[in-house]
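1st attempt posting a full record on here, be nice pls
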Amino acid sequence: IRSAIDHLIGTGQRERAAELGFAVWRFWQMRGHVLEGRRRIQRVLAMDGWGAEPSAARLHALEAAGGLAYWGGDMTTAGTLYARSVDEARRLGDDGELATALYNHWFTRRPTETVHAWARLLADDDRGELDEALDIWTRLGDEEGIGKALWGLGEHHAYRGEVDKAVDETSRSLEIFERRRDPFWIAWCRFTRSFALAIGGDYVEASRDLAVALRSFQANRDVSGMVLTVAAMASFLLLLGRDEDGFAVGAAADKAVAETGLHIANLWAGPALPMPDLASDDPALRAAVERGRSWTRDQALETAIRMADAIANGSAGRAGTPLTP
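the predicted structure (as tokens):
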């Protein structure tokens, strides 16, 4: 991939470089190569010769760059890139591409620099772009698009604290992706439904969904999914009063964020769920942080799966023996 993109950029093949970057951006995300992916796709967008006329290849490069900025937790940059995608898609006159661009931009439609600002954005009443995307996908009969829009609505309702609506929308989305046998979206539907259930205080059902998502990300070697679900497990443990365990698991997630650039893991919970303050000077919590940072990613993932299973079957109390991988 590196050699191919370098060759295409070096020989001035803009559109082929853009389409290759678009084809592999999920690989960069899922394998934890966010920083490298962002650098490479920005080089493509900076190539000489992009004209004023709308270009499907440039639209795809903008989508890839926006997606990687989003997963990197750089929501303001993602919003700028996604706004350009909306403009490009409108000029191309392709309704399917426009629906995707509108859907993406809705998550980053205003600049946000803090966890709370992004959570407020997702909870805001303004659903215009998301609803327009859903309308287009419905008219086109695009089942995958409909499933994505329903998932987005599930996130919207979860951040508003509307648990029943969030669970309903994510469950409808899950039905679509299970029918399509799409492991990526099945796992993310489970993750988001878990988030909503945890907000509602149902930690048992939330942990059942989270355990499914964790195992799916493990099976598919999806580092991005692993980082977010391990971070989610840290929040669940804090909610159950298992502070030392929550800090250990949270430290393991934080270590993976630093290694991969997947800073979205530091944003997702917003104000709805607690996240460990890894700078705590409490001796027991400091020891827990050091313990978590000593784990490999595989050890952290296995620990999170074990704890999700324990909570789901009722064998994880509110405090107990510290976790070991």
